[in-house]
Specification:
62% of the residues lie in helices and 9% in strands. It has 22 helices and eight strands.
Amino acid sequence: MRGRRLTVLGANLATLAAVAVGGGWAASLAGWRGVDIVLLLCVLAATPWNAIGFWNSAIGFWLLHVKRDGLSSAAPFLAAVKDRPVTMRTAILMTLRNEDPQRAISRLRAVKAELDETPFGGCFEYFVLSDTSLPHIARAEEEAMAAWRASEGGHGLHYRRRSENEGFKAGNVRDFCHTHGTQFEAMLPLDADSLMGAATILSMARIMQAHPRLGILQSLVVGLPSQSGFARLFQFGMRHGMRCYTLGSAWWGGDCGPFWGHNALVRIAPFVTHCHLPVLPGAAPLGGPILSHDQVEAVLMRAAGYEVRVLPVESESYEENPPTLPDFVRRDLRWCMGNLQYIRLMSTPGLLPSGLPTTSRFQLIWAILMFATQPAVPLALLLLPLAAWSAPPLAAAIAASLYGATFLFSLAPKLFGLADVALSPGMTARYGGPLRFAASAASELAFSLLLGAITSLSVTGLLFRMLFGRARAGWNGQSRDPHRVAWSEAAAALWPVTAYGLVAGAGALLVSPVLLAFVTPLLAGCWMAIPFAVLTSDPRLGRFMVRTGLCALPEEATPPAILTRLLEGEPERPARAA
């Protein structure tokens, strides 16, 4: 494992060095002006995220298609998945806060029904842990749970609502651990939009039984089929971007794997003993309770000597993705504030164990950089016309080559994932055939370019608001059903993104139409942000994509039993208006 980590470190440092040499060469040809130095720093800030994405995905693709037994070398614990009896008592938790109770609880009911059909259903009990603050939703939760208990006798079904949302979701789970945790060996947290099949849950339980030092086993979560055009496009790309990436990161991350807070088995005893989250000093948003609790809990579990592993294969582990652009941006900004709290966590003495593994410490830094480096590209696009105005031709050619390489690196996880499908026998058929798969891939790549520009500007705006103390943090219900976004709502939220794009594009055009053409892939999302938000939320787009099979997932053509059960038991919900 040490050799693997050094190999990945070397590959990423070599990539960063190559970019630094190329950028430094271009800057030296231009005379090391102030604008050249700032541009070089922007490129260097943006490179690490793209570089590790490339190398993780390249390693994952190599493991799948070149190396013999590549999967077992990245996930040796999979050998424990046999038809062994499951004896481990497990609590399956669903945490709620101001969510649609019928919608959420129908998912938990489907999970229970499928587990009850196995010989091991008695090993599981079910808890709805509510932090709901709205009285009418709280009443609906109680009624839904009462109806469920009445239909099944009530054994193993539990409901609890806290009066105070102390510690947000992490505090909700910890409260359960203190009141009921001693009755169970493991817990399986689920979000309100989570769904897991019995086969996946039992396989994970068998793995954890076979490995007593395994503290957290995270499944690879994929998106559920959706009627929303935005969600269909996003989760098609996310699915292919995550598969090779996760396998590659598991190959070198090993026992210092990720935890995403849901769809994962967690061993309760070490979690209670070692994974207590500190309250960060200072005022919110950097201070107070930790929002992005999951990765902190993972590093604390590893520091205590327990393994944290990811299951790097697709299975029946699902979630839903935001149905519209505004919902997606709100979620992204909440994650951003949570990850940036790690700055205070790591800089305050005594909050983290002194024996924290280097890889775990790197994971926290990496989570910070995921958002902290987002302003680099928007700033570079604003400065690029100034640098290009009097740059010598060779400097411009070098800069263009770096731009092209960085652009391809940013797409690498999805490109490797798409190639994995294309090269795996029978896989394109699961996505509707080669032509439909190619059309879906092309549509998603265009979508991701537009979305990337918008989210980058949105995160940059949040970082500036945080600097001036104008950002607010919290945990609340989320919009999960498809709905229209009104033009007025889109304009009110996204006009700054559009204005930035027009200014940056005008600057590029003043220098050269060729420069404008080069930066168009990174600015088009800004120019089109408002219509993009409206059109991707339009139900007609969603219906068209469902009808034509565009960005369809394999579960649409061949639904697993758990999804069929959910669709049969889920209540009908009226479509939301704008």
